[in-house]
Amino acid sequence: MLAGLALVLTACGTPASPAAPTATPTSRPYAGPLWVAPDPALHLEDDPGAAGRVVTCDQPVLGGSVAEPFSIGGEVRESPDAALREARDEGQWSGYDDDGMREVRREPDRALYTYESGGRVLQAVVVRHGRVLPGRGAGADGIAWWVESSARCDVVEYRDGLAESYGSEVWTDAAGHRISSQVVTSSTSDGDCLADGTRVLYLGNGDEGRRAYLRNTADYPKNVGEPFQADVPLPADAVDSGYRHGEERLWFAPDRRRAYVGGPDRVELWPLETEVLGCA
């Protein structure tokens, strides 16, 4: 995911000497505080804290924070680098391309790591050297390094193909602009959790709730109100969502209990999930 170099080419007249590669410009270094007071309107696990001020996202920032003293699951470490790796391994923060994370600022009790692409900071992590509750791996003084706040942009803001490599299918509007995965996304199971080939369309997220629609429902008849249908005419009252995935278009029934995926003449009927699917 490291940003590539752009080559300047000339196509007319006398061949010119190759221009020197131009590096993608980097963002202005963050000079703000590495700790900010929690947002009272958010749960701490949904509050990106100081890390949220570092990233430059088009979509709403995703992230969370941990209060001192450190008391959540997982271990703490003796260095900020090790603490960053431990937190990722324990699933305490979600990001992409760990090898691309770089320490860009160090203070006595905090370190800032960022990942940049295309001249923007897409993810940031603040690692804290602070108090730890007993039993979490700190030394005798009860002080160690641990992730205090983390933030990242929506997966659709990263390079082409990254979302798909993580199993997330990116939808766009009619003009080809990517839609946030927090608004609409879909995925096809590789058999690790759901039955192999099961495809699920997700609408919405967070406090507004998330609706899911299933394709290939034969393995989950109790989780939907009706079976999937592979080839039906598009109903006259279907509501166009405006969303696209390649050649696929998406409509909904007026009551939102059905999704229609396909073309304007023939579509697949994906029923609404009525009982939440989960891994065994």
TrEMBL record:
Region Disordered, residue ranges:
79-102
The signal peptide annotation in the UniProt record is 1-19
- Compositional bias of kind Basic and acidic residues: 79-91
Give the record's keywords alphabetically: Signal
Instruction: Report the protein name in the record.
Output: Lipoprotein
The record lists the organism as: Microlunatus flavus
